[in-house]
Specification:
The chain is α+β, with helices and mostly antiparallel strands and 334 residues long. It has four domains: 78 residues, Arc Repressor Mutant, subunit A, CATH 1.10.10.10; 49 residues, no CATH class; 90 residues, Roll (SH3 type barrels); 68 residues, Alpha-Beta Plaits (2-Layer Sandwich), CATH 3.30.70. Helix content is 36%, strand content 25%. It has twelve helices and twelve strands. A five-stranded antiparallel β-sheet has the order 7-6-5-4-8, covered by helices on one side. 17% of the residues are buried. The C terminus is likely disordered.
């Protein structure tokens, strides 16, 4: 049985509940509200929440609309004259929330994202009310992030899968999963989640299987089941996300490093590479015949080969040569 709240606490809880019920035609369930409150560390039992919602609905002061067509009730709100009806967001705050919702939805844990749902709803509603000609709405069509790769539709990741994976990663708990690989083989296992990585339109979970020492990455859209366990995840002491990415490069590299020599004639390409070098080891010089000569230590990958193929004609590439390097390992340093 949950503890009793005093009048001041109850008033605060009612305001928190109201802020999580959207002023729109979209209904939210009791579970949605309960999960959002829990994510914000607001301690309310299901029975207490149902009681508060019934009282708020019956009194008729808060504009609550109840959907009682199913076994579980849903709730939304209609606008009234009450000051509790709106979350007061400035136009720039609405714009920032909308951009964050769109571009960071896979970088924020699912439970945290749900706890912010009422803010995203409020921002969307406020921008709609301003109309399509409002400067804030026009701004969304004035900025864009583009990829240098061929556009692809994002793979379908089930919301329940992402929620479970991100929750386990956030709370550092093991996951019980069912996963089907590229060859159609399905595996059931328990894994320790270590990191979540987005590469273009794909999401990968970096993890370690129970009873195995190696670290692997699994595509989230191939998960059939994902369940958070009560067991603490094991994080290898030597695991470093950036090192893993550099060594594996997610299906584009074998981890080998090369000393790359590139020669080309385009002054435009030279200017671009001078402004945005491959890394700090890059050296760019001009030969007596006017040809540009570039040397850099870089990770060998299909993306590197693709860059040469893509820019061969425009950059007027005359030479692309790789010399494999011996990289110092942790064992060598010891």
């Amino acid at each position: 049985m949950g503890r009793k709240h005093d009048k001041k606490e109850e008033a605060s809880i009612i305001l928190e509940i109201l802020s999580r019920i959207p002023l729109s035609k979209r209904f939210v369930s009791v579970d949605d509200i309960l999960n959002s409150l829990a994510s914000a560390e607001i301690d309310v039992s299901r029975r207490s929440l149902q009681r508060y919602l019934k009282q708020m609905y019956d009194c008729g002061k808060y504009g609550l609309v109840r959907d009682d067509r199913g076994n579980a009730y849903g709730y939304r709100r209609e606008r009234t004259d009450s000051i509790t009806d709106s979350i007061h967001l400035k136009p720039n705050e609405c714009l920032l929330l909308r951009i964050a919702q769109e571009h960071m939805k896979y970088q924020i844990p699912g439970t945290v994202l749900k706890s912010l749902g009422f803010l995203f709803d409020a921002a969307s509603e406020m921008l709609k009310e301003k109309g399509s000609n409002a400067k804030e709405n026009q701004w969304l069509n004035k900025v864009c992030v583009i990829s240098s790769s061929i556009p692809q539709m994002p793979s379908k990741v089930l919301p329940r899968i992402f929620d479970a994976v991100s929750e386990a990663l956030y709370s550092e708990k093991k996951l019980r999963i069912e996963y089907t690989n590229m060859n159609g083989k399905t595996t059931s296992a328990v894994v320790s989640p270590l990191a979540l990585v987005q590469q273009d339109v794909r999401l990968y979970l970096i993890c370690q299987f129970d009873h195995f020492d190696n670290v692997v990455h699994l595509a989230l859209h191939r998960f059939k089941k994902a369940e958070v366990t009560s067991f603490d995840a094991h994080r290898p002491e030597d695991f470093d996300l950036q090192s893993y990415i550099h060594d594996r490069h997610f299906n584009y590299s074998n981890g080998e490093w090369v000393h790359w020599i590139l020669e080309f004639k385009s002054d435009v390409t030279a200017k671009n590479l001078e402004e945005t070098p491959f890394n700090t080891s890059q050296k760019l010089t001009r030969k007596e015949d006017g040809t540009w000569h570039l040397e850099v230590d870089i990770q060998d990958s299909r993306m590197l080969d693709g860059w040469v193929a893509m820019w061969k004609n425009d950059a007027q590439i005359t030479l692309s040569q790789k010399e494999y390097l011996e990289r110092e390992t942790d064992e060598d340093r010891e």
